[in-house]
Specification:
This protein has one domain. By secondary structure, it is mainly alpha-helical. The chain contains twelve helices and no strands.
Length: 269
Amino acid sequence: MELDLFRTTFLAILQGFTEFLPISSSAHIILPKELLGWPDQGLIFDVAVHVGSLIAVLLYFRRDIVILFKAWLATCLGKPQNADSRLAWYVIAATIPAGLIGFALSDVVEQYSRSMLLIAFTSIFFALLLYVADRIGKQTLSIEKLTLKSSLTIGFFQVLALLPGTSRSGATMTAALFCGLDRRAAAKFSFLLAIPIIAAGGLLEGYELVSSQQASEWGMLLYAIAVSAVVSWLCIHYFLRLIDRVGFMPFIIYRVLMGLALFAIYFSR
């Protein structure tokens, strides 16, 4: 893709806005291509805007991350467990399934990552699954009450996000609700899980791509990273403030409508 200011800004905002909401960033990234006839933005651009989202979540949870890392390190040095160290270990445990399976299936995932039919189906299916979880989940547990069993359950749900259109945040929040976490706790654990997953994905795809990228495009890519980071930070901030009040229903309805729209576009060709 030849990067210009308008398309770079639009796609970076789109990525930043959708990465942490349960609405699937992959579903949105293909829409400009299909609706506006834009060329595919390419994998290097995808990596760049994901780096922006990673920077945002690291900055937003910087205090939590420092606390969790210190507590985790203390247990590695023989200190007794506490709530913070347990949460750190649970983030690690929940990351392992998606990390291993994602690495093994990376070529298959990339092959189907732009499939509109698959994205339309998964967008609707996992929206309905989120609806069920939000309705039947007890929502009585704070993040401090998370258990190893629950964290592993959330981790295996995160594997499902390898399917394009599923939404990583949507899948992990769905699992967390099924495990009894309240909405805010489900969202926070999902955001913490995003850190190692986005970082690993960026490192996996980024090194080879960066080494081959033309210097003339670096300025626009750095701009995309910055835009994605700002929008992602705002998205995290306001989502956590509003989730108890608005719930997941607006996102569920939006995903179903988007999935239906993608089906309509696909079958109208």
